[in-house]
Amino acid sequence: MKLLVKAPAKINLTLDVLGKRDDGYHEVEMVMTTIDLADRLELTEIREDHVAILSRNRFVPADERNLAYQAAKLLKERYKIHQGVEISINKIIPVAAGLAGGSSDAAATLRGLNELWGLGLTLDELAELGSEIGSDVSFCVHGGTALAKGRGEKVTRLPAPPACWVVLAKPAIGVSTSEIYRNLDVGNIRHPNTKAMINALENNNYEGVCENMANALESVTLPMYPEVLHIKKQMERFGADSVLMSGSGPTVFGLVRHDSRLQRIYNGLRGFCDQVFAVRMLGV
Ligand SMILES: C[C@](O)(CO)[C@H](O)COP(=O)(O)OP(=O)(O)OC[C@H]1O[C@@H](n2ccc(N)nc2=O)[C@H](O)[C@@H]1O
Ligand SMILES: Nc1ncnc2c1ncn2[C@@H]1O[C@H](COP(=O)(O)OP(=O)(O)OP(=O)(O)O)[C@@H](O)[C@H]1O
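That is the input. Now the predicted structure with CDM docked in place:
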């Protein structure tokens, strides 16, 4: 049997860091939402009892480092599955971009194999398993819009953001999430107003969403990678309603309400950046 699953990227509308924990991770509070930019995974049952990863993208590891591989292995071991699977990843989400591409592939693998192997696990159970793979995986299992707390694994559903376009631009660099967290000065953070963002979502208030977009990790990534700041400034200059870096970067996204402005911003960015996307939010 064969199953096709979609693995959408996420953006952070807010990202706050509340402090450093004893386990080395950071206590965070983030509002995240999935967007219509997605990898496609094909899960195929195979005769041999092992997990195989296939991808044409040279930045995607085809071994145990792949988060989709780790997801399949985790399910196999935890539920004593003696069946093999080949996971073919059609990579659309830029790699090491702050868009949770690997985490979403892991989440899609958990959802897909739950179906393929008839495990009957709930989304909450899959999300809990996912947290063993990475901090963003629990959110990716649910998708939609949510508040994520703890190290990212405590997920509560939120209303969908007001309809708008999301323009994304990724400079030709990869950013290491652990390096960004390591260089964060936790005693000196300008905290996003998470409550105000949630309020804006609850009131379907587009201006409120735009005004309250904020990411504590920008204070590390922007000075470290000037090309990210440059893209941010250009996107603002081209007329996006609000612009922010996603996750630990380097992808920058802008919200745009009016179709008429979208083309101008897209074309302007394409002038100096290879990876530019214009997509919708998935919402719920
Ligand atoms: C930047 C974000 O993507 C925002 O959504 C997440 O906070 C990071 O999520 P992720 O990439 O799934 O993170 P993980 O794979 O669990 O961790 C990568 C590294 O980031 C750091 N890390 C991650 C999450 C967190 N709450 N505190 C941390 O300090 C740790 O050094 C960890 O070794
Ligand atoms: N399925 C996968 N797709 C992409 N990268 C993967 C995958 N599995 C493991 N990786 C590794 O993970 C690293 C980070 O890639 P990923 O695209 O997940 O980063 P990210 O979008 O910054 O993640 P996050 O936003 O969760 O911090 C890559 O350099 C790659 O080596």
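The mean pLDDT is 97.
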